[in-house]
Amino acid sequence: MNSKIRVGAVSYLNTKPLLYGIEHSSFIDSIELSVAYPSLLAKQLQNSEIDIALLPVAAIPGIDGAHIVSDFGIASDGNVVSVALFSKEPIEDIDTVYLDYQSRTSVRLAQLLLEQYWKKDITFKQAPENYIDLIEGNTAGVIIGDRALQQLNNFPYVYDLSAAWKAHTGLDFVFAAWVANRPMSDDFIADFNAANAVGLSELDTVIKQNPFPWYDLKTYYKENIRFVLDEHKKKGLNAFLEMIQ
């Protein structure tokens, strides 16, 4: 019988430091690591196809037994850069928004902010594969992850959703956390945290291994992304989950 814990993660640039630590420690021998896009990870965890996922936090309430099992995740305190609303017209003129299918958290955050912060009555559309090409006129789009970083200089209006959340609530924001659907031992959690931490101590190596000409990864990893889920992050997470229920 296979006793390895099945761990699912995404392979965006924002997770590379965490994955580096997991992949470059002896801890890797005790797990089965797989990668998928965020919304698929939620389905896999819900169906018990994996045991732990770096999960978009908006998916947590919909999964039986879901609970955070690590001190690490993907969070921000102000500008996160890689989760934004992109448009060719100012927010005042936007009436339609394409929603990136890859992350439920970013979608819910965009919907919440457009309603509560920007006070907009928006028509939301499910984004097709080529939706970035369809962002024209009064139609904007939520773009996340590496694709967002690649598009920063291609649109005159880029509204950082984490910065808007901070302006709206005064709180930090958590995009993803390591979530399990069943209890994990204290020893496993300690080893898992230690493996995650390794990557954060090796950021220069992670950057060197992932050349990315569109945005400075040192800035991204050290100023935009917050990898430790401290009490400020958890307070923001709880507020967000309450708002979207």
Model description:
This protein is of the alpha/beta class. It folds into 2 domains: 5-76 and 173-244, D-Maltodextrin-Binding Protein, domain 2; 83-169, 3-Layer(aba) Sandwich (D-Maltodextrin-Binding Protein, domain 2), CATH 3.40.190. The protein is built from 9 helices and 11 strands. The strands form 2 sheets. Strands 2-1-3-10-4-11 form a 6-stranded mixed sheet. A 5-stranded mixed sheet has the order 7-6-8-5-9. α3 links the parallel β6 and β7 (123-126). α1 crosses α6 and α3 (104-116) crosses α5 (161-169). The longest helix is centred in the last third of the chain and has 15 residues, at 186-200. It is globular. It starts with a strand and ends with a helix.
Give descriptors for this structure:
single chain, alpha/beta, 24% strand, D-Maltodextrin-Binding Protein, domain 2, 245 residues, six-stranded mixed beta sheet
